[in-house]
């Protein structure tokens, strides 16, 4: 071998060696890519990847003393706890990810994988899940879940928003409940149950009586039996809680068909554009929460829509939440300068991150973002 050839081969070896490439942090993401919540899960996936692409295009971030790019590895939970746990185990073992986001959407999946993830000693963040049971687990064992943080509020935020909206309309003379009777139709998941759990006491303390408490399976679409009972009970207010848009479309249409004369207040599903496309005028006058993304009337939201549209993404509310949650995670990684769990958790405890949808500041007792006009707003809107 000639001296020049040897030098060329040696140079090629150095260029191709791992040290010649930028460092990489592997982030595992568990969320529903199939099943009844797939539309939201896919939007969250795309928003996370959008932020990661922005970061990588800018050269990455400084972690552990070197420039580092982000590699996202996605696994499907199908909104089912057992599948989500298996996906998390695969990411933590076979893929050996450096940190985990899970679940991006389903509270029941997050609750199931919290214990599993804690045993691996990695940092874990959830995405949209709001069940207060998640926060309770953190508070009940702060040492075990020291490195677990939520990226969304607790379900009592929705309960408070619904209650204050109904009471506010009543006080303003825009709504006149005859018997102060309320009913709930909700999906039989941690999400649906926890929202109902916090709303019922608020209304009862204000003199309301609960005349309907109907739990249905995730993705349920035949509400005629429930509506038949509710027509007899004559609730002034009907609160529905679904993560499945198909369930919301079916219930809203069937309310119109059966002539149930109640103020309909919906939690979550009307933020999806396909809900309004599916029901048309049948949703007229219904209330819904959270109205967290309004690119038509909100300049900051419009700026996010334009940013994502410039790369071919028509952003929805799920995209907006995914973008800001993952951008907040990246900001905390930058401030921590590492993905080491304890140091990253310290950064989360000191979070003060302003994004398009609101300002992230944490309640460090339960690792949950604060809500309110100066933090993350949980607004109620009317169709």
From TrEMBL:
Signal peptide coordinates? 1-22
CDD domains attached to this UniProt entry: PBP1_ABC_ligand_binding-like (cd06345)
Which GO BP annotation is one of this protein's? amino acid transport
User: Which residue range or ranges hold the Leucine-binding protein domain?
Assistant: 24-369
Pfam families in the cross-refs: Peripla_BP_6 (PF13458)
- Report the sequence similarity comment from the record: Belongs to the leucine-binding protein family.
The record's keywords, sorted A to Z, are: Amino-acid transport, Signal, Transport
Protein name, as recorded: ABC-type branched-subunit amino acid transport system substrate-binding protein
Q: Which InterPro entries match?
A: BCAA_transport, Leu-bd, Peripla_BP_I
Q: Lineage of the native species?
A: Bacteria, Pseudomonadati, Pseudomonadota, Alphaproteobacteria, Hyphomicrobiales
């Amino acid at each position: 071998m000639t001296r020049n050839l040897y030098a060329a081969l040696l140079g090629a070896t150095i260029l191709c060696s791992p040290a010649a490439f930028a460092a990489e942090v592997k982030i595992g993401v568990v969320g529903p890519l199939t099943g009844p919540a797939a539309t939201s899960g896919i939007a969250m996936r795309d928003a996370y990847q959008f932020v990661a692409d922005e970061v990588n295009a800018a050269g990455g971030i400084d972690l552990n003393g070197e420039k580092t790019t982000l590699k996202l590895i996605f696994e499907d939970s199908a909104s089912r706890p057992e599948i989500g746990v298996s996906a998390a185990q695969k990411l933590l073992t076979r893929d050996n990810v450096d940190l985990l986001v899970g679940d991006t959407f389903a509270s029941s999946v997050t609750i199931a994988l919290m214990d599993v993830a804690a045993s691996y000693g990695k940092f874990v963040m959830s995405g949209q899940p709001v069940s207060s049971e998640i926060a309770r687990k953190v508070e009940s064992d702060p040492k075990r879940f020291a490195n677990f943080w939520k990226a969304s509020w607790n379900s009592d935020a929705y309960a408070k928003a619904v209650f204050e909206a109904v009471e506010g309309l009543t006080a303003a003379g825009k709504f006149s409940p005859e018997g102060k009777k309320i009913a709930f139709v909700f999906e039989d998941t941690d999400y649906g149950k926890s929202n109902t759990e916090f709303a019922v006491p608020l209304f009862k303390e204000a003199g309301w009586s609960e005349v309907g408490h109907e739990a249905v399976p995730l993705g349920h679409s035949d509400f005629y039996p429930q509506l038949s009972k509710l027509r007899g009970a004559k609730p002034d207010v009907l609160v529905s809680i679904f993560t499945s848009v198909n369930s919301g479309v079916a219930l809203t249409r069937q309310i119109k068909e059966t002539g149930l004369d109640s103020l309909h207040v919906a939690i979550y599903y009307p933020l999806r554009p396909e809900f309004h496309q599916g029901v048309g005028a049948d949703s007229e006058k219904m209330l819904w929460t959270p109205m967290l993304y309004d690119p038509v009337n909100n300049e900051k939201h419009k700026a996010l829509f334009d940013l994502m549209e410039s790369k071919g993404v028509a952003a929805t509310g799920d995209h907006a939440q995914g973008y800001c949650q993952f951008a907040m995670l990246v900001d905390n990684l930058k401030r921590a300068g590492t993905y080491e769990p304890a140091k990253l958790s310290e950064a989360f405890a000191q979070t003060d991150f302003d994004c398009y949808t609101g300002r992230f500041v944490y309640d460090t007792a339960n690792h949950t973002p604060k809500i309110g006009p100066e933090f993350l707003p949980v607004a109620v809107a009317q169709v």
